[in-house]
C-alpha cells in the first residue's frame, strides 16, 4: 500500500480551480463568401425538444432537453435562455426555455418542462446515515489534499464544464471566435472560444469542445489525482446515494451490507476520470492492460468492476447494475465485502465506476 499512499492519497482539491491549460491559438478566419452567406441566412434552426423529469439532487444540462437541432447552413448552439434555468434544485415544476442559435444569430426558442420530484430520490433524505456516508466521502478528499507531499503550483487542469453566456442577442452584439488547442492529459483537444462584444466592451464569452485526438492520451493516475479529489467532494451526495441504495438491495436480499472502502472509492473516482478523459468507455484501460487495483497494490481475492455513462440519477445507476447479469451475481454474492464508488463529470458526460472486492 506504500506506493498507493505515496501519491494517490495526494489529491489537491483547490488546484482544479487554478485555471485552464493554455495552448496554441488558431484564429478562425471568415472568408467574404462565408460572411455574405451568413448575412443572407434568414432561416432559424430547427429545434426539437423534450420534457425532463429528475429527482431532487440530480444534475441536468441543456442538452438533456434537446432531441435534435439542425440548421440549413451552420451548426446549432444551444443554451438556456436565462442563467437561472441552470440552477433549479427544489422539488417542483419549472418552465425551461431553450434557445438555439446559428452562426447568423438566427434564433429559435422552445419551452419545455423540468420536473424535480421529491419521492424516490436517494439524495433527498436528510438522514443521519446519508449525512454520515457523505461526510466520509468528503473526508477522503480533504484528507488526501492535506497529505499531499509535493504541491505543483503550476498545475493546470481542463475545465470541468462548458460556460455559456447569458446574453440577449441583438444587432449591436458582435462576436469573435477562435479555436484554442489544449493538451488535455496528453490528448490534443480543440475548443471553440466565442467572445461577445457590445461596441468595444466584452459582455460575455463561451467555450465548447470541438474535437479531441484521444490517441495521444497518456495520463497516469498521479496526473488525475488532483482533479479526482475535487470531483469526489463535489459529488459526495451522488456517491453516497449509490452506496446506500446498493446496500439497501443487499439487505433486502438477506445479505450483509458492503463496507464503504476509502481506497476503493478513491480508485473508482480515478478510474471514472480515466474513462472520461481518454474517451475509452471500456473495462480495458486506455494506456495499460494492468488492473487498476493491481497498479495501486490494493489487496483482494475477488473483484468486480462496473462502469456506466450518461446517467446522472443514482437510483437509475443502481438499477442498471442489477440489470447486468454478471454484476447482479457479484452484488448478490456474500463473499464480496467492500465497495468503492466513483462519479465524474467530464466534457458534458457523466461516468460511474463501482468496484467490489472480497
Order of helices and strands: HEHEEEEEEHEEEHHEHHEHHEE
* C-alpha Rg (nearest Å): 22 Å
Structure classification:
alpha+beta
Order of strands, main sheet, comes to 1-8-9-10
Residue share in β-strands: 25-35%
Number of helices: 9
Which percent range fits the helix content?
Answer: 25-40%
In total, the number of strands is: 14
Largest sheet: 4 strands, antiparallel
Poorly predicted runs? 1-33, 119-126, 147-164
Shape label: globular
Rounded average pLDDT = 78
Span of the ends, CA to CA = 17 Å
Indicate the topology.
Elements: H1 2-7, E1 25-27, H2 32-40, E2 46-49, E3 52-55, E4 66-70, E5 77-80, E6 92-101, E7 107-117, H3 128-146, E8 173-184, E9 187-198, E10 201-213, H4 221-234, H5 236-252, E11 259-260, H6 262-278, H7 292-295, E12 303-309, H8 314-323, H9 325-331, E13 338-346, E14 349-357
Parallel strand pairs: 3-7, 11-13
Antiparallel strand pairs: 1-8, 2-4, 5-6, 6-7, 8-9, 9-10, 12-14, 13-14
Short description:
This protein has helices spanning 2-7, 32-40, 128-146, 221-234, 236-252, 262-278, 292-295, 314-323, 325-331; strands at residues 25-27, 46-49, 52-55, 66-70, 77-80, 92-101, 107-117, 173-184, 187-198, 201-213, 259-260, 303-309, 338-346, 349-357.
Could you describe the 3D structure shown?
- This protein has 358 residues and is an alpha+beta fold.
- Helix content is 29%, strand content 29%.
- It contains nine helices and 14 strands.
- Strand 6 and strand 7 form a beta hairpin.
- The longest helix is centred in the middle third of the chain and has 19 residues.
- The chain is globular and about 70 Å long.
- The N terminus is likely disordered.
